[in-house]
Amino acid sequence: MKVSIFDVAKKSGLSVVTVSRVLNGAETVREKNRQKVLEAIKELDYQPSAAARSLARGKTGIIGLIVTTLQDSFFDAVVKELNEILAMQGYFLAVSVSTGMESDESHYLFQEDRVDGLILLSPMEESKYILELKRRGIPYVLIDNQLPENDAYSVTIDNYKGGYAATNHLLELGHTSIAHICGQEMFRSTRERRSGFLQALQDSGLTPFEVVHGEFEIASGYDTCKRWLAEDDLPSAIFAGDDHIALGVINALQESGLSVPGQVSIVGYDDHYIASKLRPHLTTVRQPADRIALAAADMLLGRISGKMKRAASMHIDPELIVRESTVAAGGN
């Protein structure tokens, strides 16, 4: 098995950042630590890649990524794609799972000479991050940021189009009683998906069965659907704010002996791993992790190299994936 920089870091008992700095000839590494790294390299017979050796002297060869959670298959897919893309360019991705700028993990990545650039994936407190990054002169890119005023150097999904497409699909199937269960209001994606939903209904001269303000959790869909069942008042179709919400709805309906999509059609959002494993397979709106990661990596590397002089943003269209959880109104 090929030895990686991570193996060297483990063997030496030091961080990947420190190993990278030794490989790139940084003068700020303590001599004691430098010797540890060199000994580990010799023992493991580690051979840095040509791409890594070609990194400009004085660079760490590390890109930092801050994400609020990895308990999300969409985030996980984006991180995986970023790791592969950056590795091909000779960079290593240092991932920090952090809910705020004051955490130890975030503070570590903000320290001088730790990283060549930072990617913020669906950040909270993004304005605070941006202020500090600008102060320290660290190039950055946002993915799925919450505030439109921070769209400079960002990659976002057009969630309005996604919400519209999901709802329009149900309308084209003849559904007129359509509900929407949202995620948390703090997320821009929540607000934009809802706006697309409402606009699609308005364009057809309809009003929602109900708009429920919930969370991106299975329990949100389950509890909402249980309430509708208790009230004996169900919509014929539901646009769920994400696939987890959709799963909760399906669980509640199937527990009650109701058919999906025979009696209620459901559309999710994200195209999580579970979407194609559910029974029935879930109709959903896919966020293309590969295109998002490539756009973010290209933008950040352009900033690091100095080739990207002007602020820019990229909006990527989602894709409706039609599977088994939606049928024509009244269908069985």
Automatic annotation (TrEMBL):
Pfam families: LacI, Peripla_BP_3
HTH lacI-type domain: residues covered: 3-57
Gene Ontology MF terms in the entry: DNA-binding transcription factor activity; transcription cis-regulatory region binding
CDD domains: HTH_LacI, PBP1_LacI_sugar_binding-like
Annotated SMART domains: HTH_LACI
InterPro entries xrefs: HTH_LacI, LacI/GalR-like_sensor, Lambda_DNA-bd_dom_sf, Peripla_BP_I
Matches recorded under PROSITE patterns: HTH_LACI_2
Swiss-Prot/TrEMBL keywords: DNA-binding, Transcription, Transcription regulation
Designated name of the protein: LacI family transcriptional regulator
Natural source organism: Paenibacillus lutimineralis
